[in-house]
Specification:
The chain is of the alpha+beta class. It is built from 9 helices and 14 strands. It has 4 domains: 19-77, Ubiquitin-like (UB roll); 81-136, Ubiquitin-like (UB roll); 138-192, Ubiquitin-like (UB roll), CATH 3.10.20; 204-287, Orthogonal Bundle (Lysozyme). The longest helix has 14 residues, at 257-270.
Length: 288
């Protein structure tokens, strides 16, 4: 009988078959490379151990190691690898199990449809790691002298975006947001002209009044405040006729807190202390 059994089972003893069952063909794919494996293992984890394929908690194993072999079909293992991303000049390191750049970006949920990459999306990522530079393309609007100019840029700072457009700042001009800021998609970059000259000095008595308290009462000290009922603008809620009467240009809210304070003090001097008409509700705070 044993001879018959040996003939039937190709020389494999019946006892071995009874003890271990029939060896199974396992289709194993490790980091994109196929490995042929015949094993008596009962689970995915045992099959990987038999093939001497190591894996850790960050690695991708499909199906999970506890899955029975008969339910496994193909076993896929992708080892985690470091991906150094330099996005718009900022560096971050992520671990991915994707085998190429495209799948890694998808794994990290990073949209690259409006970005320039330093490598092809099909570039393979070795287990030792890879370095990828991502430069996003953003649409911003530059406002200068009332003219709005849409710009598509990859600049990392507002200063760089202006320089690429050949825009230089004149003495006294300011930029909002600040020159070192990152120009986000949809950002409006405003170039604010230099304020008009201050030809009339503020007397020490007027300068000593509590202008911070007045601004806090009127608007909470917000230089960008706007009240449509006047309309009134800026931290001191000054109307456009009054603003222009003291040499102000554009609107109060277009200027810095320092410029608004100077023009408010000048207005106080021009009306010779008759502040009640200008600040009926909060003017008394000047003397607090």
């Amino acid at each position: 009988m044993i001879g018959v059994a040996s003939a039937l089972f190709g020389g494999v003893s019946l006892g071995l078959i009874v003890a271990f069952g029939v060896a199974r063909e396992v289709h194993l794919m490790v980091d994109g490379e196929p490995i042929a494996l015949r094993t008596f293992a009962g689970t995915v984890g045992e099959a990987l151990a038999a093939a001497e394929v190591r894996y850790g908690p960050d690695d991708h194993v499909s199906p999970p190691p506890a899955t029975a072999i008969e339910d496994a079909g193909q076993i896929v293992v992708r080892h985690a690898r470091p991906l150094t991303l330099i996005k718009d000049g900022r560096t971050m390191v992520r671990r991915v199990t994707a085998l190429n750049v495209r799948d890694a970006l998808k794994e990290l949920d990073l949209d690259h449809s409006r970005a320039r990459l330093s490598a092809s999306v099909m570039r393979q990522i070795p287990v030792t790691g890879f370095r990828l530079k991502i430069t996003t393309m953003r649409r911003i609007v530059i406002v200068k002298d009332g003219r709005r100019t849409p710009v598509i840029t990859t600049a990392r700072t507002v200063r760089e975006a202006l320089a690429r457009r050949g825009i230089t700042l004149a003495a006294g001009e300011r930029v909002r947001p600040r020159l070192s800021a990152f120009p986000r998609d949809g950002q409006v970059v405003r170039i604010i002209p230099a304020p008009p000259p201050r030809t009339e000095p503020i007397t020490p008595a007027v300068a000593r009044l509590n202008w911070a308290a007045l601004a806090a009462c009127e608007t909470g000290g917000d230089p960008r405040a706007y009240n449509p009922t006047g309309p009134y603008y800026g931290m001191y809620q000054i109307s456009l006729p009054m603003w222009r009467a003291v040499g102000g240009l554009k609107r109060p809210s277009d200027w810095s807190a320092d410029e608004q304070t100077y023009r408010a003090q000048l207005l106080y001097q021009r009306v010779e202390g008759r502040w009640r008409r200008q600040w009926p509700g909060c003017g008394a705070r000047l003397f607090g």
